[in-house]
Each structure stands twice: as structure tokens, then as C-alpha cells.
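Hi F.,

I've been meaning to write this up properly since the lab meeting, where we talked about keeping a consistent format for the predictions we share between groups. The idea is simple: the sequence comes first, exactly as it goes in, then the C-alpha cells exactly as they come out, then a line or two of notes. No screenshots and no reformatting. I'm using this chain as the first example so we have something concrete to point to.
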Amino acid sequence: MAGNEILRARMAEAGFTQVELADAVNADLFTVGYEGTVSDRTVRNWLTGKTRWPHRRQRAALEAVFNCPITELGFIPREKPSRKSPEATVLRRHFITASAATLAATAAPAHAAQRRVGMSDVTRLHDKFAVLVATDFRYGGRRAVETQATALAEEALTLQRLGTASQRVRSALYSCAASFTSSALWAAIDGRRFGAAQSHFDRASSLAAMSGDSTIQFRIWSHASSLYRHMDRPADACAASDVARALPIARRDPMFASLGHARHAAIHGHTGDLRAVRQTIGYAEEAHERASAGEERPVWMAGVCDRSEIEGLALSAHFSLGNYETAEAHAHRSLSLLRPGMQRDRALVTARLAHAQLGQGDVEQAVDTAMRIPADVGQHPRVNSILEDFTHALHLAAPSSHSRQAWDEYNRDGRRNAQ
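Output, unedited:
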């Protein structure tokens, strides 16, 4: 049985593991109203050739993920049995060829009618964006999220290129494409794929400028500030944050201003400026108090509206400064506010909480806290980085303790089970 080497090559090109491709296909199935049941075993069957022609919904999802026809992924359609004689097949082929030639010769050389694109198409894209954001809240920076976001951005741009639309609809389509690309940008940042993130930022900022939508521009420039902070480029991070905070949406809606100040505080924490951290966190809290809770906002603002993200950014700032007691207080507040589906954020906050407790000498409590992080979520690149730092600090602080031994064993078993 021949394996599907074309699919294997396309997966390698996109950077997919078998699990990540399964997640990407399931995410696409979810966007069209179906519960995804694809697993890494399903993908393995595709690769080995055991399954040569997937189910039609899986085929459509694979085409969306890789942005190409299913036959370009190495899959072979099933041949339908035919009772016609070879002579009949030949005659039918000649008839079709002749008919096609006749139609081509008599057809008018006019341009094909373009499809009219309207706000219903934009609404459909917004629904897909909401699902994508929910997927990001659960899984974080997986390549599957990044790839899916890029494919959806291309879907919005295809409507832009091939359809006729009003100027209002065209601006909305550019906004949709920018929104999807901003999610690809964040997934790449979250997965510490900084080269890809820079490329997504360049494209997203151009699309957002064409849309004229300051809301999505705010998200993109805020993500850029996070990108440069993680790349240890604080001057660029501050500049990007300043652009976001100066946008009309940040002046019009205090909720956006609050997020802008909180992310700026994280940058100040990275540079070790305690006074600036306290000042900007104060600005963020004040702006949040002024914001109207009932106002309609984008789905990606969910963590800001309930204040969990602001508390998480304050935790990050004080953690960077080594203010572990204050960091712990912000961590507990963030965990109490986080929504159930935000698994990645909960793991990040819990990992920092464990490290903050260790910084205060609470070794046993710190290890108990770290063990609350599910093993699979602990493999997330940012969570894993914090836990590696936690492990190193634990070995220095309590090299011979039972807690250190318990953590090493738990950490080792968890990694083995997650693979």
C-alpha cells in the first residue's frame, strides 16, 4: 500500500504535526457547524494510504486548511463502476469534446458575470472569526490556528477580488482579512515563531490601513508591541504601543485605552521601570472603571471586558520586576476572572503564579500550583518556557527537597504522556 508522500510534504512545508493537522481540520469543520472527529490516527491513515479518499466534509476542510484542491494533496478519487462498453465510453468522450468545442466557438466573448458580495458575506466571515478566536483562547499559538487564520484571510480577499461590492462592503472585507491576519500574527507570537509573526504584521497593518477600521488597527499594533517585547526590543515595543494608544478607538472607548495602558505596563516591567509600571497600571484600572460594560465590542476583547487580561498583564509586569507578592495577588485576581474556555491564559497565569510563590520561598505551595497545569497545555511554547524557568529556580532554591523530587517526576511523566 503506497503512502501519501504529497500530503507528507505539504504538512512539512506548513509545519504541521499529525496532531496539529487534525486540530486544523476539526477547527474548520467547527466553523461550518460540524463537530470535528479527526484525530492523529485519522491523519496517520491518510499518510500511510490506508485512507485514500477522505469523507467529503474532511476533504472540504483539508482544501480550506491547505488552500488547494484535494487532488493536489495526493488523494485519489474512488472510481465509480461503469456498465458501459468501451465503445460507448469512447463515443461519449468524443461527444463531450465536440460539444465543448461547439459551445466555445459560439459563446460570446463577454466577461463572465461577477458575483455580488454583500454584508451577509461579511457576517459569515465574522462568525468564522468568532470561532477562530475561541479556538485561540483554548489552544494558543499552534500552527493550526495560524494556518487556519491565514486561509480565512485569503477567503476574504478572494471575495474582494472576484466579486462586485459597495465601498462599505469592500472596507468591511479588508477589515475581515486584517482581523484574520491579526489572529495569525498573534498565534505566531504566542508560538514564539517571530519571523512568521513579523511577516503577518506587515500584511495585517497594510490590510487594516485599507479598511480604515481603527479597532482592528488597535489590535494589530498592540500585538506588534507584544511581539517586540518578546523579541527584547523594548524601544520598538513602546513605539508600537504608542501607535495603538493614539488611535481614535482608544480615545473613544476607555476599554481599549485600558488594554493599551496595561500592555504598556508589561513593557515597562520588562525594562525594570517600577514607577512607570505602577503609573500605567493605575491608568489602566482608571480607564476600565470609566468604560461602559454593556457596549458592543469585538470578540477578542472578552478578556479585557472582564478584566482578566488586565490583571494578567499586571502580573507579568510585576513578575518581571521580581515583585512576587504583588504578582501573586494579580495572578489570583486574574484566575478568578478568566472564563472557562481560556485554557491557554489560565495555564500562563498559573505558571507565573507558581514561580511567584517560589520567589517568596513557598516551595511546597509553588509545586502544588505548577502541578495544576494540564500536561498537554504545559507543552504550549510560552507556558513551557515559564515552567522551564520555574524548574531551574526550584533546583537552585530547594535542590534536595521532596517537593523538587516530586516536581521532577511529575514533569517527566507529564511530558511523556503528552507526546
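Notes:
The chain has 21 helices and two strands.
The CA atoms of residues 124 and 247 lie 27 Å apart.

If this format works for you, I'll send the rest the same way.

G.
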